Protein: Large ribosomal subunit protein uL22c
Organism: Ercilla volubilis
Amino acid sequence: MRKKRRRKDDVYAFSRCISMSPDKARRITAHLRGRFYEETLMILELMPYRACYPIFKLIYSAAANASHNKGFNKADLAIVKIEVNKGATMKKLKPRARGRSYMIKRPTCHINIILRDISYFEDFRKFMRDLSEEDQQKVMIGLQAERFDILE
């Protein structure tokens, strides 16, 4: 199995064992994919769901990591990938009448977020505009070969 390489212009943030259903978290994260950082914060502040706050904190933390650790501008960050995975289920028993008990299940979820600095792509677009058609094709062929690890 091929090992995944981390990109230099990506910032990662993970949150584990958040006490909410993965389905409720996915309902929110579906609206956030591909959006910019500031737009995402505004959307999360205005959504009426309880699950918004942990996601808001995680995105805010990822942007703080980007600005502190890598020196990125928060305005240039966009959400590339956001996943919600199922975590462990907390189980407890609720006592009922006549010595019976009912199981109470509290689902948890794990959220992974990847933010990317888009300013690198703007520089690349400017670079490509200045090239001729032949040179643009050569650059694109080189990028595809690098992407599929043909050239090393």
Remarks:
- DSSP finds five helices and five strands in the chain.
- The longest strand covers residues 77-86.
- The mean pLDDT is 86.
- The first helix runs from residue 22 to 29.
